[in-house]
Amino acid sequence: MKEVYFYATCLVDLFFPDAGMAGIELLEAAGVRVIFPQGQTCCGQPAFNCGYWEEAREVARTQVALFPKDIPVILPSGSCAGMMKNHYPELFHGQADEAQVRAFSSRVFELTQFLVNELDVKLTDLGEPVKVTWHSSCHAVRDLGLVGEPKQLIAQLANVELAPLTREHECCGFGGTFSVRQPEISGAMSCDKAADAEATGASVVLSTDGGCLLNVNGTLEAKKSPLRVQHIAEFLWERTRAR
Amino acid sequence: MHADTEIKFRDSAAKALLDPQLRANFRRAMDGLIFKRKAQFPNPRDLEDLRDLSTAIRSRSLLNLPALLEQFETQATKNGIQVHWAETCDQANELILGILRSKGAKTLVKGKSMVSEEMHLNAFLEEHGIEALESDLGEYIIQLDGETPSHIIMPAIHKNKNQIARQFSQKIKDAKYTEDVDELTAMARKVLRQKFLDADAGLSGVNFAVAETGTLCLVENEGNGRMSTHVPPIHIAVMGLEKVVATLEDVAPLYAILTRSATGQAVSTYFNLITAPRGAGEKDGPQEMHLVILDNGRSRIYADPQLQATLRCIRCGACMNHCPVYTRVGGHAYEAVYPGPIGKILTPQTEGVGVRHDLIHGSSLCGACGEVCPVKIPIPEILVRLRREATHEDVGSQVNGKGTGRTATEDWAWRLWALANKRPALYRVITWFATRFGNALPAGAPLIKDWTRTRTKPVPARRSLSERVRAKGVPHV
Ligand code: SF4
Predict the structure, then answer these.
(1) Which residue of A41, A57, A73, A88 is the best one to mutate when testing the B interface, meaning the one whose CB has the most B CBs within 10 A?
(2) Regarding beta strands B215-220 and B270-274, do their DSSP bridges make them parallel or antiparallel, or are they unpaired?
């Protein structure tokens, strides 16, 4: 039986555990044994992006140590997967454990990419007809080239109509510490994203990333919009699990 | 120090965001440019090939920069161009003043040049009794109002037609009010024609300098570049020292990607190759040609293998056009000569990473800039590098002002963050508290206050995923 590690990411752990559970369930439903190391915390991206590389490295090192087996590490986040896959090698460049970290990085996958490209999952839609829209996270697209996979999964759901955003590839304004360092700009971007989503007529916005979810959902809520944002894993699991 | 400078970009951006006219002007203009650029690259594969080629040409040029500059100087001098070197903007200004004074020149007509903006040349000349008139239509428009460019290739893009109509009717002698673009252009043209004929000297920028031939390439759409460089008896060109390429062959792909990335044009209306002043028996061209090559911090950037990529820039402006921050706040909010993503990496390197800490952090790191940059400058990575430089003195680099953006508060915050995230037991205690009492955080708490300007307060789930996983019996080690 195929085995994988699951890395929740701090945002999913704390704010979107349902999405994390759904990710695990989707993998298990595809016949994969999922291992969830309990010591996991954060991938280190916030400190890395702010230039605090020593701190980021200390944390990253403890994370890498939790995944000793040579099996894939699956993340329900494009941004954190991008960090672990593409930026860890940069962060550990010239360090004594660089080779070990690189080996780890090569085993990192974002959830939807793993479901489509490695497992080739087939989904059966059991839900009511619904219209959704898709927000692609910047790091997922630009760090991982994650463009088609989530849409392929959505397309497998017979009762789901996908209404695209006008500016699908534009940042939602989260940007980690950017959201509180530049709250006015970030807020303006978030409000535009929320308005774009509302204009699609969809009843749910799907995304792969906890940061975008927190941001866009909070913005929609503040606008008293009925529209909500949901992690794609949670959406897929809700629609396909046998009840 | 950065505590007050940090506010700078944030404040001016916040002000810009409150101006609906400004936001609409930028959004409309940038959408147009994005659309036109896209139309020039119907096949993504071709675009990537051209980006790869252009990146390779610019990287190779930089690799051989010292030798190419030498070769260029020799060749240009042979052609009759007088080459001058300036380490600082002050030196460059003095050089130009000296040239003008030696000829008794009182008026200078200028084609568009961002390097001259960098030098604040107009103000300097004005102080010394020399009139410097901008002849690029956009530059002319903003000069009338005493403004600075808000975009590197479309300096007046923050204004719409009606605003310009009002301005012309007030500032141009005998002008009537009209919103007809052709009539407005004709008005400016009439003023400028005479200025070209009367000017004692002309000034231009340079897009590419070709080492093998000593040629200056100038890309433009209005013909004002050609007028500024050919009509007055003296032509002075200014350029940053990174502009040189080896051969004319190198220019073709760069030119092709420059106009397409910038304005979505396959070719510009004018493409000037200027190799020498007027020769014996020739009927046009300046009698005298000068080139001022400016360093202004560039050699310091050049010395760093990663940051050197900054100098690949061909000033197309695509990174601005596609930037979600720039398109909302416009160019003036940056309070820098070069706005937008390229300005965010260039300005802190020339002015100091501590003093322009505000710019380094004015990005969500979305990566749209790096994605469109025709010479693949990894702008987000460089921003992160500069954030690191701003807060750390020990990186072993020569970045201007390194370590000067460090604050005790931020230091402590990251130290505590690392502490909590390195120790699973501690992390678990924190998440336990967050899940049970996270909702109790006061809305006025720092960070939460800024977050909730436009959003509801984030509420942690009642049980963390780690807890749920344990309860469900997912294998956990
Ligand atoms: S950084 Fe790249 S996209 Fe921006 S102006 Fe320079 S060449 Fe153009």
Answers:
(1) A41
(2) antiparallel
pLDDT at B133 over 50: yes
- Other C-beta atoms closer than 10 Å to the C-beta of B271 total 16
Largest CA distance in chain B: 93
Of B406, B424, B455, the last residue of a domain is B406
In a domain, B53, yes or no: no
Task: Give the domain range for residue B11.
Answer: 1-40+305-406
Ligand 1 within 6 A of CB of B368: no
Q: CATH code for A130-240? A: 3.40.50
CA distance linking residue A220 with residue A198, whole number of Å? 9
Buried b (16+ CB within 10 A) or exposed e, B112-129: bbbbbbbbebbebbeeee
B196 and B270 part of one domain: yes
Backbone angles phi, psi at B244, to 5 degrees: -80, 140
| Pair B121, B66 in one domain | yes
d(CA A217, CA A235): 15
- The domain total for chain B is 3
Chain B residues closer than 8 Å to A35 by CB: 474-477
* B424–A185 C-beta distance less than 8 A: no
State how far the Cα of B128 lies from the Cα of A32, in Å rounded to an integer.
77
Q: In Å, how far are A83, A121, B399 from A28, measured between CA atoms?
A: 25, 11, 50
Q: How far is CA B362 from CA A211, B285, B327, B408, in A?
A: 18, 45, 13, 20
> Please, is B189 exposed, middle or buried when counting C-beta atoms within 10 Å of its C-beta (0-12, 13-18, 19+)?
middle
Is the same domain home to B379 and B289? no
Residues B390 and B421 occupy one common structural domain: no
Q: Are A212 and A172 in contact (CB under 8 A)?
A: yes
Half-sphere exposure of B344 (CA within 13 A, CB side): 31
Same domain? For B267 and B359 the reply is no
Taking only the tens place, the pLDDT of each residue in B33-72 is 999 999 999 999 999 999 999 999 999 999 999 999 999 9
What's the mean per-residue pLDDT of chain B? 93
Alpha helices in chain A (DSSP H): 10-14, 17-29, 45-49, 53-64, 78-82, 88-91, 98-105, 111-113, 138-144, 149-155, 178-181, 183-199, 210-222, 232-240
Does B423 map to a domain? Answer: yes
pTM: 0.95
User: What span, in angstroms and rounded, lies between the C-alpha atoms of A143 and A110?
Assistant: 11
Q: Which residue of B has its CA nearest to A181?
A: B361
- CA-closest residue to ligand 1 atom 2: B373
Q: Which amino acid is at B144?
A: L
Q: Give me the residue from B421, B455, B464 closest to A59, CB to CB.
A: B421
Q: What is the CATH number of the domain that holds B29?
A: 1.10.1060
Residues of chain A found within 8 Å of residue B467, distances taken between Cβ atoms: 17
**B230-283 residue pLDDT tens:** 999 999 999 999 999 999 999 999 999 999 999 999 999 999 999 999 999 998
**A2-118 CATH:** 3.40.50
Residues B97 and B204 in one domain: yes
Position B200 pLDDT exceeds 70: yes
Choose the final residue of a domain: B363, B388, B406: B406
Q: What is the layout of strands, in order, in the sheet containing B208-210?
A: B244-245, B208-210, B215-220, B270-274
**pLDDT tens per residue, range A184-230:** 999 999 999 999 999 999 999 999 999 999 999 999 999 999 999 99
Provide DSSP, B193-228: HHHHHH-SEEEE--SEEETTTTEEEEEESSSHHHHH
Residue of B94, B52, B111 whose CA lies nearest to B274:
B111
Same domain flag for B189 and B322: no
Mutate to test the interface with B, among A184, A209, A219, A220 (most CBs of B within 10 A): A184
Distance from CA of B29 to the nearest CA of A (A): 16
Contact (CB, 8 A) for B291 and B239 = yes
